[in-house]
């Protein structure tokens, strides 16, 4: 009996360890794909900026197209914005049965809104614009760093990313209580994107902010940014919800976002910021920044055309200084910036595409030489060396430093190693180590730091000797059951008390199954069901990623297949896949879920890639290379689509679509034929109205997942 008990115990421990290993692998897949997408966003924006500076269109028509494409929106002056978003002229029809707002707001208004949103009702555009107008007026009066004291309330509750998941916000209020004079809240950014109810979350938070201005505090996150919203769904969702007034609401929200405070201090001892810090974080400078200048942290304003020769590019931390107007040469150690040749005519598509690719590559190489970096050694860079690229004049240097301060606190992540280096995974901000945390806390006499920005399996995580606390409040972020949400409560003693939850009913049922199981086997089976569901979703996303890089994978596999047998070892398969995708995943461990086992340990890679293609292909008459490009760049394409679609109608003309594909063929490193694009256009225009609806485009290729 004793031996049997030991055997059962040993089996169970091994089984639980394997489940934990599978959970961690699944988590790595989700996180790697998410961060690679954020990196693509910044790379894409750098490409936009480069073309705006270097591209010489051959006609005024092309020049207008490119200008519309890369300028996301004009900055409205105060009076113009008020006139454009005039809510008083809007009439609310008698048939409207939703909630109504009157100002100043009262607690009853907030309660009515919560009940209405639970019943899936919407707030009329007139009230939304009125609310945004009042919120903007209030935010303009606030400092960059909000100050909260536990002396005036029993406790302060800090919530992390919500990402449009209204159910999580409802559950927080249910468990913790609504904001009130005795219950303060700090919402730490990333209210929107990804989830389907971003606007509702903004309405609820802004309503409580106006009712309890001393008890409710909002920090800006990296997703309170117009360029990010274009990519991650908020803009598209808002326009789909309100096609008549959506553009006005979007413009007003864009302006409200840039007025959100950047940080919060509790009792002068606990610093709350969305992302993190760097070795150059300066709270005194953050206090003085004119924060509303930064509508998007991913966009930098350029110098006027008259100062073109000394123009400073302030996008994504990369700056370049050319010879000054007086003809003075740059530093002798720097090679001159390559000047692109005159652009060939758009009539010769192949020649034009090659020209764009060549000039882009020349510019990238010049930037690398300017900052003394090589493509093969990015890890050895310190963060400071990447943001101090060249000597700037006074105003530009000040603006660059301010931009860097905001980028750091919105985009950075902690790391276990010492030091501070470029965040190459996200593509923005930095990684900061325990020594950097210690230095900033000592400099400003702080006890610890609370940040969000990263999804954690348990909803929270301590690091840096419990001096950094990550709080993430969007449960089931990647998939139902993938993670818990959490919030933290702080009393006068400033001891953090964590509360965890899972909002989705299905996930809650799975968790209760585990809790109610009275024997280990039942607990293990409950965990298995939960992990299997999340794991299936993760591997589906990973297979899409593999298919999107089919051409590059074939080239990598052939490098190991010297005799052209069409077969490689499974070990070489794992090495080749990582060399192409750069996701940092344990491919050997993931192999059983991606590759069928073989007796001799060899893989027929062409048939394996064909199997991947069969899972993804839905339009057989479109050339396979074009389909692969769409999968690999679908997020980029949607961002481009939203930028071209200036009126946010969800439609662009055939001509604009055709020009977009030809222009960005260089960015996607593939020659696209006119026949391929024409086939694509005919496939998408289902109603034959001469315009392209991007949602129909995505649906045609099964890129929009069906709602559960």
Strand content: 5-15%
Q: What is the CATH superfamily classification of the largest domain?
A: Metallo-dependent phosphatases
Uncertain stretches: 69-74, 300-337, 366-393, 507-521, 700-708
Report, as a whole number of angstroms, the end-to-end distance.
Answer: 48 Å
Which word captures the global form? globular
The main sheet orders its strands as: 1-5-6-10-12-11
Q: What is the name of the CATH class of the largest domain?
A: Alpha Beta
Per CATH, the architecture of the largest domain is: 4-Layer Sandwich
Helix content: 40-55%
Number of structural domains = 4
Helix and strand composition category: alpha/beta
Global mean pLDDT: 76
What do we call the CATH topology of the largest domain? Purple Acid Phosphatase, chain A, domain 2
Main beta sheet strand tally, sense and closure: 6 strands, mixed
Number of strands: 18
Task: Please outline what is shown here.
This protein folds into four domains: 70 residues; 312 residues, Metallo-dependent phosphatases (Purple Acid Phosphatase, chain A, domain 2), CATH 3.60.21.10; 87 residues, Recoverin, domain 1 (Orthogonal Bundle); 84 residues, EF-hand (Recoverin, domain 1), CATH 1.10.238.10. 49% of the residues lie in helices and 9% in strands.
Topology (SSEs and partners):
Elements: H1 2-54, H2 60-70, H3 78-84, H4 107-118, H5 125-139, E1 145-148, E2 155-159, H6 166-176, E3 183-187, H7 198-211, E4 216-218, H8 226-232, H9 234-241, H10 246-257, E5 263-266, E6 270-272, H11 283-288, H12 349-370, H13 383-387, H14 394-411, E7 413-414, E8 420-422, E9 430-432, H15 434-443, E10 448-451, E11 460-463, E12 468-471, E13 485-490, E14 497-501, H16 505-516, H17 520-548, H18 550-560, E15 567-569, H19 570-581, H20 587-594, E16 602-604, H21 605-616, H22 624-632, H23 634-644, E17 651-653, H24 654-664, H25 674-684, E18 691-693, H26 694-700
Parallel strand pairs: 1-5, 2-3, 3-4, 6-10, 7-9, 10-12
Antiparallel strand pairs: 2-13, 5-6, 8-9, 11-12, 13-14, 15-16, 17-18
